[in-house]
Amino acid sequence: MLATVTCAAEPAAAKAPIVHPDKRITFSLKAPEARSVAVAGGDGLGSGPFQMTKDANGIWSVTTPPAVPGFHYYWFVVDGLQVNDPTSDTFFGYGKPTGGLEVPEQGADYYAIKDVPHGEVREKTYFSKSTGAWRRALVYTPAEYDKNSKARYPVLYLQHGAGENETGWTRQGRAQFILDNLIAAGKARPMIVVMERGYATPATPDIRQENVQAAFSAFEKIVVDDLIPTIDASYRTLADRDHRAMAGLSMGGMQTFFIASHHLDKFAYLANLSGPIIRNADLSHFSEISMDGPFDTKTAYGGMFSDPAAFNKRVRLLWVGVGTAEPEMFRTSIGGAVKALKSAGVQLVYFESDGTAHEWQTWRRSLNDLAPRLFR
């Protein structure tokens, strides 16, 4: 019989995770009929899954070693079945609603809610002629947006990673607060930020099982033919390439370079946050994408970097970043490409997030470094 997981009204029966001052985390779950329970999650939680023990009241618990600061997805494995914590909010990650928690980083307040003017995150529903379906984008407008009806703003198109959706940058990444704080301090120019779902189909695909070329091409058509015209028609944008940027994390970084390589007439600012940088042009299947070996600046991305002088003149910012604790695939592909691009004379900004993995703290830090460099 499947174990019953209950969430009792009394706080003692089922507590949300407790993050201790030393960053150890105590998880608990009431599942009296379960035979085994463990907790697992993102890279920053450590080397789990962590096996839990049951007390006389049927409450399973475990305290993990100190976690890396930042946002972490997590879930319980109850008798082999993955379930969310009934005491936790869920966030869209791993292709489905998934539990999450925050481990504070000492001294890091750039993504905190502060007593500064706050922008708004709006929902923009629009019809995509490319797919024949309705879509939703989340749009951040700066605090001053509604106060001056004559002002127009540059636009950053900011994409999430694989298994996530358009809510990732505001719910997990806290992008709106990062922008609020930077703009209030005069460090970043007031801008509109557009966050769309990076898939052309209703289902969330597994990029490792997809024809990546077809998937990215379909999303490219949405961005260029549907999304940009919709945003320019609906908001007070500065609707030219010199005031338009595209950036993304992981899969979103791959999409940024893929789309930009065909549309440098649309974007003057490009940023890749932990997105694997490919060596070859074959995107038919993820497993066939080459991220090893030398990066050929002449042929990669349709020759986008083949004339460094022309690229530098046309692209006002090329920004690339990675966490130092990310898996080798990311560090190797990104680091090798950065070295080759710099050697060829391509101007770029390279950013490393010290000690963080392929998780949201890397990308929060990345956005905090990137945003002040845009539209200058």
TrEMBL record:
Name this polypeptide is given: Esterase
InterPro entries xrefs: AB_hydrolase_fold, Esterase-like, Ig-like_fold, Ig_E-set, Mycobacterial_A85_antigen
Cited SUPFAM superfamilies: alpha/beta-Hydrolases, E set domains
Pfam families for the chain: Esterase (PF00756)
Residues annotated as signal peptide: none
Transmembrane portions of the chain: none
Natural source organism: Steroidobacter flavus
Gene3D superfamilies: alpha/beta hydrolase, Immunoglobulins
CDD domains, per database record: E_set_Esterase_N
